[in-house]
Amino acid sequence: MVEYDPFSDEIFDDPYPIYRRLRDESPVHYLEEFDCWFLSRFEDIWQTMSNPGALTSSRGTTSTHLLTRQTPTGRNISMLDGAEHTRVRSYLNRFFMPKHLKGLEPRIRELAKEAVDQALERETCDAVSLGGYLSVRVASLLLGLPLDAADEVMDWVNTFFDREPGQRGSTKTGIYSAKELAIHLLKLTAERRVSHDDGENVLDRMLTTPLDGQEIDDMAIVQHLNMLVIGGTETFPKVFSAALFRLAEHPDQRAACAADPTLVPDAFYETLRFDMPTQMLGRTVAEETTIGGQKLGKGSGVMFLYASANRDEREFDEPDRFESTRRAPRILSFGHGPHQCLGAHAARLEGRVLLEEVLRRMPEYEIDESGIRRLRSEFFRGFAELPIRCVPA
């Protein structure tokens, strides 16, 4: 029997050997301690997310909600089901679609150049912070948040996911940061309601356009914004820094991408598969259902082990090999089905633009391995710091 503990040092150090054993020996794995099932195979997760009718998001979707049983403090788009979720998603969707993003690409390119300018001026930088500089500003543009508060927002988001050795779930510091971010968003919402701005962004739309004929109150706006801020800023820096790390590990692939920028989107996409930072998200069983031959009882949690599924040898040839031109037909890094990540197009655009700028202006960047610091969390895997030396082209 596989011994799997999502909070163990073994998982924090390297989860992939255990993920392989789960896929082979117990693909729908139950842990009584958490009253939760863990799905590790690609097809099981893909099919379950395609038809989530027996599952509900209303009790939360993260390990904090479903494993440590911390009650969600609000109700945002990620916690809605069925028709209600579809209505809210459709209401917000246009700001995250390629047509809208294409209009923002010149500004995103300017921001990426700013980030690289600063890195080259210092001659060294942290790749995680480099990605964070861009992601929080793009999120601010899409959501309608002031750019002059971007770095403060990034700090709150980063701290929100801090973990302490021996403690499961959020820390006191993380909870405090979450409250500070919520207070910031509430003040901003109240100010903008008075100023009557009408920009092309999420906040102004929620303030000026009723949803289903009803005005959205300030607290509901804050709850949606809070989720969108975190989703739009937290994951991208981890994927971007992983992309720089993998390309440095494979200098032939890095050189090919630097010589031909049309290869960059595929390299970023492969990083999303190979080094997906979000280890798991989940649902709660709303009514008894069967997955992979196992009966799941009402009220139990179900966690989708995305990082395991993206290395499933049933779906990918040589899944533990990084190949920048792989072009996998499907991955689970943005989820799947009705709850597929709203910001998927934005993340891929940011990744393409920032990687293009780095490879154009410092294609021979060097990793300072002595300063690498990795995350240790049940929820995220990746770099907390990845120092690089910026070698100009």
Fold and architecture overview:
This protein has 393 residues and is an alpha+beta fold. It is 50% helix and 10% strand. The protein contains 16 helices and twelve strands. The chain has helices at 9-13, 16-25, 42-50, 63-66, 82-92, 98-122, 127-143, 150-160, 172-195, 202-208, 218-233, 235-249, 251-259, 264-274, 306-309, 344-361; strands at residues 28-31, 36-39, 55-56, 124-126, 281-285, 289-291, 294-296, 301-304, 366-367, 373-374, 383-385, 387-389. The chain has a five-stranded mixed β-sheet. A three-stranded antiparallel β-sheet has the order 4-12-9. It is globular and about 60 Å long.
CATH superfamily: Cytochrome P450
- Class from secondary-structure proportions: alpha+beta
Mean pLDDT over all positions: 95
Radius of gyration: 21 Å
CATH class: Mainly Alpha
| Assembly state (oligomeric) | single chain
CATH architecture group name: Orthogonal Bundle
Order of helical and strand elements: HHEEHEHHHEHHHHHHHHEEEEHHEEEE
Q: Choose one word for the global shape.
A: globular
- Order of strands, main sheet, comes to 1-2-8-5-3
* Domain unit count: 1
How much of the sequence lies in strands comes to: 5-15%
Core attributes:
393 residues; alpha+beta; Cytochrome p450; three-stranded antiparallel sheet; 16 helices; 50% helix; globular
Topology of this protein?
Layout: H1 9-13, H2 16-25, E1 28-31, E2 36-39, H3 42-50, E3 55-56, H4 63-66, H5 82-92, H6 98-122, E4 124-126, H7 127-143, H8 150-160, H9 172-195, H10 202-208, H11 218-233, H12 235-249, H13 251-259, H14 264-274, E5 281-285, E6 289-291, E7 294-296, E8 301-304, H15 306-309, H16 344-361, E9 366-367, E10 373-374, E11 383-385, E12 387-389
Parallel strand pairs: 2-8
Antiparallel strand pairs: 1-2, 3-5, 4-12, 5-8, 6-7, 9-12, 10-11
